[in-house]
Design goal:
mainly alpha; Growth Hormone, Chain: A; about 425 residues; globular
Length: about 425
Amino acid sequence: MKASRATTQVLLLLCVMYLITYVDRVNVSTAAASFGKEFGLSKTQLGLVFSAFAYPYLVFQIIGGWLGDKFGARKTLTICALVWAAATILSGLATGLVSLFLARMLLGLGEGATFPTATRAMASWFSAEKRGFAQGITHACARLGNAVTPPLVVALMAATSWRGSFIILGCISLGWVLWWAISFRDNPSDHPRITQDELAALPEYKQYKDRPKVPWMPLFKRMMPVTITYFCYGWILWLFLSWIPQYFLHNYQLDLKKSAIFSAGVFFAGVIGDALGGIVSDHLLKKTGNLNTARRNIVVICMLLTLASLVPLMFVHDLAISAICLSLGFFFIEFTIGPMWAIPMDIAPKFSGTASGMMNTGSALAAIISPLFGGWLIDKTGNWDTPFIFSMALMVVGSITAFAMKPQNKFDETAHAVLKGVQPA
């Protein structure tokens, strides 16, 4: 992707944001070995802590996407980042289950609007044939956050404590807020480093007041298959993010450092998957001109490959094989991210923040249920492989519902406006 200084800076800003948000949301999984013991928490209670983030995160997906559309990405993400930074620091000051649960909920409130709002920014800053790459590389940085978090948090805990690790990471988030507020502009033409060549390649920027009103119910119905598919993706994502460090720690009786290394290996596979998925999706779009081929087909194939990767876990109890299977599974499921996050921009470019928020409610709902359900299964069965069985079933469901996404068929807000007797803008 050839980019001038302005688009490079915007992409870098978003990449760093995606990385930081995931470090701040998954650090709890590694630190759980310490605070779980200090607070005397069961696996089910740990699952409750893991899922606390997702309750407000779910609620603020659509609201946050709408706010990003209405007030712009600059203001929305500045406020959001201040909230999630404060929540991360407060997590380090928790005194028990209740205060930690509330701090994690505040984190979900702050991060709820981040990805839909970032998608709003990408819709203005990247042309259609580069959106898969933009989504893929930013989500690759999110998975890089997953990969570096276990060893990073272990190192910070060794240098300070589990509390100190949260406080330090919260302060890093505050640094990003300042960078974002100073550097980003909603309208690309307002950026001091933008060039005329760049502007010519970008879609026309429109202020919110110049855009048609959101046709909520028609858009919701149009995005429903995408949301269901993304729920299936989100289930396995949050199972991995919440339990993989604990999986290696307890299922194979590793110490905390070795568990962190194996967890980082699994999550790093997702980094590669995210980056390649966006690149391959955009390549197929340029080659075929067909969004169904470039977006939907990748999702279907990779969900089935994820299922196939996880099957050996049910039959073989071996550390090396488990690590390879989990890495392959995470690689293939993350390969779908670039195509999936490009779909809201493909379907409804004028409402990309709202549409992506609708889609991400699927993952947010899964983030509530999956960690809690996984912890309950482990408590009941004593088997750390059991939670993956349900995940494999959802890969089948997701590959089926993906056929109904039809990204090639763009949402026509003008038709809905005419049906309601409103003159199109």
